[in-house]
């Protein structure tokens, strides 16, 4: 369970970095690659950033759902509501009379 939480935190950090690298007007990290001679070019960098954003967002959603599914019941709920557990009552006839001493009890 802890491993899932750590992976979620890593994906959140990476997703924040990828989103910050993008520019809402189409510039961002891709604006630095102005020449067509650059490896990948502007369009490929923008496509990579967009695909990685969608992939990490989907992975984050799936991992959050898995973590929520693996978690136990919340506060105020019990796991034992549906179980038929017999109620044990104390046998009143076995209690000592008022004048008898109870074994193991010192006065």
Summarize the structure.
The chain is an all-alpha fold and 107 residues long. It has helices at 2-21, 41-70. The protein has a domain at 2-70.
Descriptive overview:
The protein has a domain at 2-70. It is 47% helix and 0% strand. The chain is built from two helices and no strands. The protein has helices spanning 2-21, 41-70. Helix 1 (2-21) packs antiparallel against helix 2 (41-70). It is rod-shaped. 4% of the residues are buried. The mean pLDDT is 75.
General shape: rod-shaped
Q: H/E series, N to C?
A: HH
Rg of Cα set: 32 Å
Number of distinct helices = 2
Number of strands: 0
How many strands, which pairing sense, and closed or not: the largest β-sheet? none
The fraction of residues assigned to DSSP E strands is: under 5%
**Structural class estimated from helices and strands:** mainly alpha
- The residue ranges in which pLDDT falls below 50 over 5 or more consecutive positions are none
Rounded to the nearest angstrom, the distance between the terminal CA atoms is: 53 Å
User: How helix-rich are the residues, as a percent range?
Assistant: 40-55%
The average pLDDT score comes to 75
């Amino acid at each position: 369970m802890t491993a899932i939480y750590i992976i979620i935190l890593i994906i959140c950090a990476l997703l924040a970095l990828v989103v910050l690298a993008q520019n809402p007007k189409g510039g961002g990290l891709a604006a630095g690659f102005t020449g067509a001679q650059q490896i990948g070019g502007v369009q490929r960098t923008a496509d990579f950033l967009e695909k990685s954003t969608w992939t990490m967002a989907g992975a984050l959603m799936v991992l959050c759902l898995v973590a929520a599914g693996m978690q136990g019941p919340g506060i105020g709920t019990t796991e034992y509501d549906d179980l038929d557990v017999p109620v044990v009552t104390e046998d009143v006839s076995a209690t000592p009379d008022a004048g008898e001493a109870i074994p193991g009890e010192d006065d």
